[in-house]
Amino acid sequence: MRSELQPRKKLKAEVQIWLENVERVNVEVQDLDDRIGESSALTRGFHTEDVSKSIKEVEELITQQGRFHGGLVVDNPQWIGQVLSTTNISGEAVKACVEEIWQCLMDDGVKKIGVWGMGGVGKTSIMKFINNQLLKERGKFDTVIWITVSNETSIAKLQKDVASKIGVEFSGDEDETTRAGMLFENLSQKGRFVMILDDLWAKVSLERIGIPELSNGGKLVLTTRKDDVCRQMGCREIKVKPLMEEEAWKLFLEKAGCDNLNIQGVEPIARSIAKRCAGLPLGIITLASCMKGIYDISEWRNALKELRLRKKSVNGFEDEVFEQLQFSYDRLKNPKLQDCFLSCALYPEDWKIEERSLIQLWIAEGLVEEMDSMRAEFDNGRAIMNRLISNCLLEVFTEEEHARTVKMHDLLRDMALRIAKSRFFVKAGTMLEKAPDVQEWSMNLEKVSLMRNRRLYIPLEMSPP
Question: Where is the Disease resistance protein winged helix domain (predicted)?
Fold first, then answer.
């Protein structure tokens, strides 16, 4: 019976009745056995009639079992879910993340799960994998609802999306409260459901949408780039981290193919290209796919050079990846907050930036609101820093009691430099010995960074155009 009871299936009515009778007779037989055991040798004969009755019922149930023609189950019209296309899960850290999410789903004590991490790190791919596994799970959940949340999603849009997944039809005349009531009634009847909200950007009210209290086996899983969304929604937080360097290289090999990497001199170039993806599966898969089937080493050298120069000609790689990454930047909305982020690109690649020094730079440039004390301005700068970290635009590298350093992912730095292309001129940490030609400077230039070039000599008479 267990082998037949798969998702999308339920027991036939006659099978369910038979099982209930089996359970009833089993209890009666156990009760009879207890009563016989407590009887004396003289009174045990009084139970003969009850024993005969129980034997007859058991024989009848055994006989009935053979009458279930055409199997024990039928299609379950209440079962809801959709298998989603996805890619293979790569990396030990990612697999551990998947396992942690799964354990939370199986734990009745965890109602809400928040999966967060920077854009392109693989949150959606992980949850697609989880979605498909849930559809294979036997009997744990009857309904799996996947909702893709856009950045401008409203309560009305979410209600419409949920309704389309669970078969609720709105006439178009209902107000928000009525729609919520219709969804609430339908979902309450389903009991064991998992709702996945992919790419959530801000806290939403489950009550306003119509999602019932998750007390009867229901679960909510959301993905977001902001850990404070997880906290505000009361979720168990699970962070998806970028791939380690060797894991990233393994994924690059898988997508690019190994044949072309056997060419002498290609592998070190390919490793440099893979490293620039900063462990982001989206970047690795996209760029490796672009380089698949390339056997000319000059094309590999050119691709690496173009990436370093942040040109767009590598088969649209930057456009696809940066579209994901820049979304977090755009959502900051406040121009001063955006400039605080962009200023981090003035430091050399992979540079560990001291938080205090960075905040002092922001204050000096007027990016932090002027207040009545230096302490208040620093606290405001610290709040900005936390906002950038929360949005996965910066990551904490080291943290001590009174100090911490932060770091910017390579792809995020490339994105920032691309955004500020006409405003920034950055050659930090590039081993320059000669000052850049002023013809390289744009007319709208605001900031120049030549730091960490130990042998660089800058003439006193040099000035921007």
Answer: 346-416
Q: In this structure, are residues 265 and 297 in contact, taking their beta carbons and an 8 Å threshold?
A: yes
What is d(CA 367, CA 347) in angstroms, rounded to the nearest whole number? Answer: 17
Residue with tokens 């003969």: 48
Sole residue written with tokens 């709105």: 170
Cα separations (Å) of 313 from 291, 303, 437?
Answer: 13, 9, 25
The reported pTM is 0.68
State which CATH number among 1.10.3210.10, 1.10.10.10, 3.90.190.20, 2.160.20.10 fits the domain covering 332-421. Answer: 1.10.10.10
Q: b or e along 375-392 (b: 16 or more beta carbons within 10 Å of the residue's beta carbon)?
A: eebbebbeebbebbbbbb
Query: Distance between CA atoms of 191 and 214, rounded to whole angstroms?
Result: 9
What CATH number is given for 92-239 in this structure?
A: 3.40.50.300
Strand partners, 131: none
Task: Give the Cα-Cα-Cα angle 303, 305, 310 (nearest 5 degrees).
Answer: 90
Reported as a single tens digit per residue, the pLDDT across 170-200 is 988 899 999 999 999 988 887 789 999 999 9
Pair of tokens at residue 338? 């955006």
What is the C-alpha to C-alpha distance for residues 105 and 134, in angstroms, rounded to an integer? 9
Q: Which of 319, 261, 247, 320 is nearest to 291 (CA)?
A: 261
